């Protein structure tokens, strides 16, 4: 199980172990972005199978994971995804991923038979050739060069230099003046400004690239970024607008000083801000870094209602209000349920009301966690079959239990086979799983009737059926 820990400044070195070698070319795969937006995203991380796994809990997207970031040569992404699947199954939720790199989306779609994928222009990153921003060569960058020449002529004593912890007072003075001219009133813009100011406090750390343009002891502009793989990601780019040309001067100076040996510079997304989009576009991006969100579903997402199934003697259909008393008797029969492998007391939520078990079954269907069938003989409920524990890769587990007074007549075998055939040929599963206690020979005979024994452990026999 994933051991998820909060992302803090102290955990940045662990994140950097992965991000410093990451090739995804998206700004979210960086320590800086994670620290800037931690308060809104509630991010947590875990290391597993040579991969970094990051989970977010956001108001707009819910519980979502980043695509795992592997260490080169040793990271096992598929096993990390298995860990994510198991965590989600335990939490009773479907896996969901945000900011999936374009080159990784096909792998998720191959892995999960049912998934919804989307992307948004608002969050695409602006990617530039490092050499382009470092030299502004060619006619298409003439405007930027003219602004820089004007700045140099107006402020010949201005210098570009790295920033460290020793510059904290000058950095604070810059922010105080920048706040006075800041004219954006959206919640995201205000949060980003506060987050950028906090991130600048990390200037001087080994993994942080921080610099500013200084004139007579006063900072006119500042930038902060980090190197991830073959790319420099610029997290903070701020300048005092009253100093004409300071912004392109800062962009070029920062790129030239920090992109040696790199191929790309990522200046992040524009979040739909018209001014940012105009500015970032004017610097002529070589590519746009698309980010995909992938929401995994299971076969129950295509199930509108519980179907009515028929076998030779039995009918399997939806539980109804009139089944409440019989269903309670089935769920409360401790003698029989010791072979069911489940004790409701272990995860009882709230009060054990008369409708508790029926409500749980309906909740599980509504949330696409399970589907429960009432097994009926001549219209009378004699047991249930339940399909549950979906793994989101085309597999689920089937169980069946019958009232004791109906045991020994083959009803369990008949109901199980009926539900199994529907699961594979009606619902569309690729693989059906089941298990039984080794001390329950009748259950083993029932499963052997239509499934293949694939293994055993200290407690169970394990069966499966594939098509």
For the residues shown, what is the average pLDDT? 94
| CATH architecture name of the largest domain | 3-Layer(aba) Sandwich
Q: Tell me the name of the CATH homologous superfamily of the largest domain.
A: Gcn5-related N-acetyltransferase (GNAT)
Give the CATH class of the largest domain. Alpha Beta
> Total strand count, please?
23
Given helix and strand content, the structural type is alpha+beta
Question: What name does CATH use for the topology of the largest domain?
Answer: Aminopeptidase
The amount of helix comes to 25-40%
- Outline the biggest β-sheet: 8 strands, mixed
Q: Give the percentage of residues in beta strands.
A: 25-35%
Count of alpha and pi helical runs = 16
What does this molecule look like?
The chain is an alpha+beta fold. It has three domains: 5-124, 3-Layer(aba) Sandwich (Aminopeptidase), CATH 3.40.630.30; 125-268, Aminopeptidase, CATH 3.40.630; 299-466, 3-Layer(aba) Sandwich (Aminopeptidase). The chain has helices spanning 12-19, 31-36, 38-41, 77-91, 102-111, 130-135, 142-154, 168-181, 187-199, 246-258, 274-282, 324-331, 334-337, 356-366, 411-426, 441-448, and strands spanning 5-6, 44-48, 51-58, 62-65, 69-70, 96-101, 115-119, 125-129, 159-162, 209-215, 218-228, 231-239, 264-266, 287-289, 291-296, 309-310, 314-318, 371-377, 380-388, 395-402, 431-437, 452-456, 460-466. It has an eight-stranded mixed sheet with strand order 16-17-18-19-20-21-23-22, sandwiched between helices. A hairpin with a 6-residue loop joins strand 19 (380-388) and strand 20. The mean pLDDT is 94.
């Amino acid at each position: 199980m994933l051991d998820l820990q909060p992302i803090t400044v102290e955990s940045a070195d662990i994140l950097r172990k992965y991000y410093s070698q990451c090739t995804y070319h998206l700004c979210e795969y960086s320590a800086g972005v994670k620290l800037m937006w931690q308060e809104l995203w509630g991010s947590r991380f875990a290391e597993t199978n040579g991969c970094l796994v990051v989970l977010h809990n956001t108001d707009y997207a819910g519980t979502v994971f980043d695509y795992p970031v592997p260490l080169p040569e040793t990271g096992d992404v598929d096993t990390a995804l298995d860990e994510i699947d198991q965590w989600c199954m335990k939490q009773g939720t479907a896996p969901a991923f945000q900011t999936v790199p374009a080159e990784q989306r096909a792998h998720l779609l191959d892995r999960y038979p049912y998934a919804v994928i989307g992307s948004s222009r608002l969050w695409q990153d602006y990617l530039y050739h490092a050499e382009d921003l470092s030299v502004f060569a060619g006619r298409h960058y003439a405007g930027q060069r003219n602004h820089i020449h004007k700045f140099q002529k107006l402020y010949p004593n201005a210098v570009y230099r790295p920033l460290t912890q020793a510059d904290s007072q000058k950095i604070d003075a810059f922010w105080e003046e920048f706040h006075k001219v800041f004219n954006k009133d959206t919640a995201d813009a205000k949060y980003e400004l506060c987050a950028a100011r906090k991130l600048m406090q990390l200037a001087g750390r080994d993994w942080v690239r921080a610099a500013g343009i200084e004139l007579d002891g006063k900072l006119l502009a500042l930038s902060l970024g980090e190197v991830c793989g073959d790319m420099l990601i610029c997290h903070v780019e701020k300048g005092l607008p009253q100093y004409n040309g300071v912004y392109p001067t800062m962009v070029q100076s920062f790129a030239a000083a920090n992109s040696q040996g790199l191929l790309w510079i990522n200046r992040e997304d524009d979040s739909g801000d018209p001014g940012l989009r105009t500015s970032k576009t004017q610097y002529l991006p070589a590519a746009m870094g698309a980010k995909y969100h992938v929401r995994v579903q299971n076969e129950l997402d295509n199930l509108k209602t519980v179907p009515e199934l028929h076998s030779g003697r039995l009918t399997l259909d939806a539980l109804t209000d009139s089944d409440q008393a019989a269903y309670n008797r089935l769920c409360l029969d401790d003698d029989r349920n010791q072979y069911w492998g489940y004790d409701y007391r272990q995860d009882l939520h709230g009060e054990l009301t008369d409708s508790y078990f029926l409500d749980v079954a309906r909740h599980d269907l509504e949330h696409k966690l399970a589907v429960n069938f009432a097994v009926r003989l001549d219209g009378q409920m004699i047991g249930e079959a339940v399909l549950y524990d979906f793994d989101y890769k085309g597999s689920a587990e089937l169980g069946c239990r019958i009232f004791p007074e109906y045991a020994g007549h083959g009803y369990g075998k008949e109901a199980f086979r009926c539900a199994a055939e529907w699961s594979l040929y009606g619902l569309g599963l690729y693989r059906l799983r089941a298990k039984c206690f080794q001390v329950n020979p009748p259950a083993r005979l029932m499963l052997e009737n239509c499934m293949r024994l694939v293994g055993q452990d200290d407690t169970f026999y394990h069966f499966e059926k594939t098509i």
